[in-house]
């Protein structure tokens, strides 16, 4: 029912946009010299700003602090996307609305750029019988610095296509970002390699790529999406495991899924630390001028402490 309603809304918005642009001209809100870009997840906003530099004006449609897994764009968001030169999305299933956006804007001269193009996503095994409507691939690729380099490369290539005259700047900026991401990769690698144990308890299963890349093991309270809550028995098993393994920390993330992680914390007497899943930038971090790199370094420090 909800799904049909959403589809109808998109059709109405689509026809509004089409009728508004019947003469085929685009109504750019920004300076003609800058590309206007809309992004979905915070890391895409950060990568695009770094690579695009002075040649782009970037705005993110998922507001700070909201749950990216359940976000739906408003009519205003759809118009903003339609008015932009390019829409950059992750494209790993986390943005449930991306297909509809792409369909709505495809005749609007908006370039759709899938940041995950060419990446091989990890499959995740379901822990219950109920198949997840979000699919079984892990969408959280931006938490892996090595995958982030490839996403940045895709963004660089797309920007060059949109504005070939600025190619030298885009490439220079991409190489500087790549260097930062390589340093981050080294930090994760060293920290996890040198830690006495490798298990973390997390709110939702966002950290699968740290398992594959660095040998960490995440034990999620909720599933791959924040909406996949554990059964009572799964929750009890997890509490038993934390006690038996003498795990000292539960890692929260400032999202809805923290509620159940709090139950685990309470039942096991563990302490809590905050991990950033970076799906959105939380307002407190934005105010403190934190960015993707500084927050990922904070994640490294949280791992260091919780893996003791
Ligand atoms: Zn997530």
TrEMBL record:
Regions that span the bilayer: none
GO molecular function: metal ion binding
Superkingdom as given in the UniProt entry: Bacteria
Similarity remark: Belongs to the bacterial solute-binding protein 9 family.
GO biological-process terms attached to the record: cell adhesion; metal ion transport
Classification via PROSITE patterns: PROKAR_LIPOPROTEIN
SUPFAM superfamilies with a match to the protein in the record: Helical backbone' metal receptor
Protein name: Zinc ABC transporter substrate-binding protein
Signal peptide: 1-22
Keyword tags: Signal, Transport
Species of the source: Fictibacillus marinisediminis
InterPro entries per UniProt: AdhesinB, Bact_metal-bind_prot9, Lipoprotein_PsaA-like, ZnuA-like
């Amino acid at each position: 029912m909800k799904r049909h309603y959403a589809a109808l809304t998109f059709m109405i918005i689509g026809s509004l946009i089409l009728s508004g642009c019947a003469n085929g001209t685009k109504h750019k809100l920004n300076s003609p010299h800058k590309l206007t870009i809309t992004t979905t997840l915070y890391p895409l906003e950060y990568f695009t700003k770094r690579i695009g530099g002075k040649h782009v004006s970037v705005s993110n449609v998922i507001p700070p602090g909201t749950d990216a897994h359940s976000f739906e764009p408003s009519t205003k968001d759809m118009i903003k996307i339609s008015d932009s030169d390019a829409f950059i999305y992750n494209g790993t299933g986390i943005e449930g609305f991306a297909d509809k956006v792409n369909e709505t804007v495809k005749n609007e001269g908006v370039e759709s750029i899938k940041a995950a193009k060419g990446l091989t996503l990890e499959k995740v095994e379901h822990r219950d019988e109920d198949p997840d409507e979000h699919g079984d691939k892990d969408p959280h690729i931006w938490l892996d610095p090595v995958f982030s380099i490839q996403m940045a490369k895709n963004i660089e290539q797309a920007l060059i296509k949109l504005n070939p005259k600025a190619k030298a700047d885009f490439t220079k900026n991409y190489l500087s970002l790549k260097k930062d991401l390589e340093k981050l990769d080294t930090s994760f690698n060293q920290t996890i390699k040198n830690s006495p144990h490798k298990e973390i308890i997390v709110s939702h299963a966002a950290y699968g790529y740290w398992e594959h890349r660095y040998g960490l093991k995440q034990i999620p309270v909720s599933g791959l999406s924040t909406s996949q809550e554990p059964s009572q028995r799964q929750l009890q098993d997890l509490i038993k495991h934390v006690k038996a393994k003498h795990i000292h920390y539960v890692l929260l993330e400032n999202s809805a899924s923290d509620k159940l992680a709090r139950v685990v914390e309470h039942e096991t007497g563990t302490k809590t630390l905050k991990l950033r899943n970076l799906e959105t930038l939380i307002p407190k971090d934005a105010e403190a001028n934190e960015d993707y790199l500084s927050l990922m370094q904070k994640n490294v420090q949280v791992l260091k402490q919780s893996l003791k």
